[in-house]
Design brief:
globular, alpha/beta, homodimer, Rossmann fold, DNA-binding, 7-stranded mixed sheet, 16% strand, 3-stranded antiparallel sheet, Arc Repressor Mutant, subunit A, 230 residues
Chain lengths: 230, 230
DNA sequence: ATGTGTGAATCGGTTCACAGCC
DNA sequence: GGCTGTGAACCGATTCACACAT
């Protein structure tokens, strides 16, 4: 008999689970055995209704009048997120950013060990970064198969990002995290997330600009008083 | 008289403008003077209806039956995004990531020159990273005022991220980009964006996991277990 | 004929508000 | 009394579909 939750967890909820989880890890160290949606909401920077709704997608793991058992919730959440085992990753591109990512211990610590590094530049191949040898991008298929890597991180210049994505997919990668400032496409079956630093700054620039237009001109200073603590 | 669009641009649209703009920049180099919503959509990785709706918030800059004038649209978009002048930024925290960000030329190139670097570690103060001298975090108020910096980038460990945010705001910063794996809060009047690498990987891990649950049949996948960590 | 601009329909996500259980 | 779990209301964003301009 299969007991699998038939719940389809909304994307927006999935994106918040890691934040809840991190909050729970913090709390787990103190000897508080239970936590309320209100407290968890505050720690995660969202509101309590959202926490309850989100957690309800995982199952009814709370106790009315009491709250959620921290350790149990943490376990369920880790299980749901697939964090009960490590996910080795390969980083493609060892420029500034790739270098920093390779050296950043945070990945390995959090269950995503950097299992391989590749670059197209022969001058970089053979060097070691953060204790891992850089190999040639042509070797991707063997590397990925050998180390059973499913997640690829693109840290190359924009110009080659799409080509790298194609090669990662061809090599057997099924999840891609793209840091290159370029739009890339992957087959439907492949997960893709992007982190674009310049875009983030430009979004900030937009609101900065708005603020200045608003306060510089005609009569109403009108601060956009958004009281949403989301 | 100032010609000001009274339109309030939706947040989701704002987040896509930089991507459209980048696509337009690419196209502007070829000698194509106009572009259709369809073509722009393809380049930006969205659908054409969304492009048209998004652009309509900026104003009616297209011509029916023809498309959008690339240069004109580019100009309007840059203006709207506040990219007609530079926005100097300060980076706080010069660990691995801060270092990479400081060395990454992409920021300056895209209108966000790294005008200052600060760290709390006296051993780092006085050193130079990417041509900029590292100064002590205590000097933030003077640095920010002097260089007229409005955007602050947090690249510190999670533990001090909130404190740094508070100090940035106190120093006069009005936009914050947070790379620290921590939830931080800022006053309503301050813009905040976050980039959390571990969260991105965990989201990928979730979908990876789902895929495997789906394809592995009903039995437990039986994967090596590890102890829970952050 | 072609491709924009936009109301209307739809969808996904958030918030409300309260019934249900401890 | 306190706090979860969840339908219902609401809201923002996406998509549809077509009138309209060139």
């Amino acid at each position: 008999m299969v007991e699998r939750p038939p719940r389809r967890i909304p994307e927006a909820t999935v994106a918040r689970l890691p934040v809840y989880r991190r909050s729970l890890l913090e709390v787990a160290e103190e000897e508080t055995s239970t936590i309320s949606s209100e407290r968890l909401a505050e720690m995660a920077g969202v509101n309590a209704a959202k926490v309850r709704k989100d957690l309800s997608y995982l199952g009814s793991y709370g106790t009315r009048g009491v709250g959620y058992d921290v350790k149990y919730l943490l376990f369920q959440m880790s299980r749901e997120l697939g964090l009960t085992h490590d996910w080795p990753v390969v980083i493609v591109g060892l420029g500034n950013l790739g270098h920093a990512l390779a050296n950043y211990g945070g990945f390995g610590e959090r269950g995503f060990p950097v299992a391989a590094l590749v670059d197209a530049d022969p001058a970089k191949v053979g060097t070691r970064v953060g204790g891992t040898e850089v190999r040639h991008v042509d070797e991707l298929p063997e590397i990925v198969a050998e180390r059973r890597i499913l997640i690829g991180i693109i840290a190359t210049p924009a110009a080659v990002a799409q080509e790298v994505a194609d090669r990662l997919v061809a090599a057997g990668i099924t999840s891609v995290l793209n840091f290159a400032p370029a739009v890339i496409t992957v087959p439907d079956a492949i997960s893709l997330r992007k982190v674009d630093l310049a875009v983030e700054l430009q979004i900030l620039s937009f609101y900065q600009q708005q603020r200045q237009l608003g306060s510089a001109g005609d009569g109403e200073p009108s601060l956009p008083t958004r009281s949403v603590r989301d």
